[in-house]
């Protein structure tokens, strides 16, 4: 879910429901399902250009913690790169791994 937060006195912003973005085992490339969901995010962010987003990547528990942290960051960064290429202000999006 992408919930755009309104500031005091602003017109309420809508909530956009998006599906989780899944990756194939041990990969960080975006597939067609991911791109379909990211198009919804792109549309919302173009409609509300001042919105800031933090993208958080995750993995399963297979593998070492350090490896999974690196993979989760690569996954988050692949989403970030897609949104930047789509024209989203790079100063309004960031990526972290968990």
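^ structure tokens above, recovered residues below v
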């Amino acid at each position: 879910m992408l919930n755009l937060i309104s500031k005091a006195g602003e017109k309420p912003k809508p909530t956009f429901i998006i599906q989780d973005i899944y990756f194939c085992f041990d990969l960080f490339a975006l597939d067609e399902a991911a791109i379909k969901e990211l198009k919804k995010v792109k549309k919302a962010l173009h409609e509300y250009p001042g919105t800031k987003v933090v993208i958080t990547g995750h993995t399963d528990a297979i593998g070492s913690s350090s490896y999974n942290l690196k993979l989760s960051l690569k996954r988050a960064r692949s989403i970030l790169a897609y949104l930047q290429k789509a024209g989203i202000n790079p100063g309004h999006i960031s990526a972290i791994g968990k």
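The first strand starts at residue 2 and ends at 3.
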